[in-house]
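Appendix B. One record, verbatim.
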Amino acid sequence: MTPRWVGLLLFVVLVLHAVIEKMPNGLLPEMLYACHVATAVLAVGVLLQKPALVLFGFSFHIGAGLWGYLFGLCETRTTTWTSVLVHVAPLVVGALEVRRSGLPRWAPWVSFAFLSAMVVLAYYTTPPTLNVNLAHRPFPPVARYTPALWATWVTNLVFGFFLIHATDFAVRKWLKWQWRT
């Protein structure tokens, strides 16, 4: 299992991101982006030496968090060093655990359930202007295709389901190939 100090390091990365990027800009509610919460869960998994939490965090990041970050990056064409750390560090830590113990079959299902729950949580707890987890309006490049909020949620969750499961499939194929060599 990953050393416990790595879990502390993940929390330091999250705190740096919150203090340096979010707080000064009035964006602290954005720490409820599902990828940030998944990083915290992964960090707790490392600290408590609970591989299931680490594997869930990796599954979510590789299947949804990374995609969301990349789509946002394409839209805004900007990022920060703390944002890069928040999105890359959990992938590295999780990949090491996946390499050691494998990726459980339940991981994409739990990741999708988590994504769904985080959309609802963001809808009720974050300002609509921030659109955390796309809970209040569609992703701008596809807004004209989903004018109603319910259609936005259905579209985002169907797309999230597809990305999480397709990425899980690709990771399993890659790992199988890696383990054979």
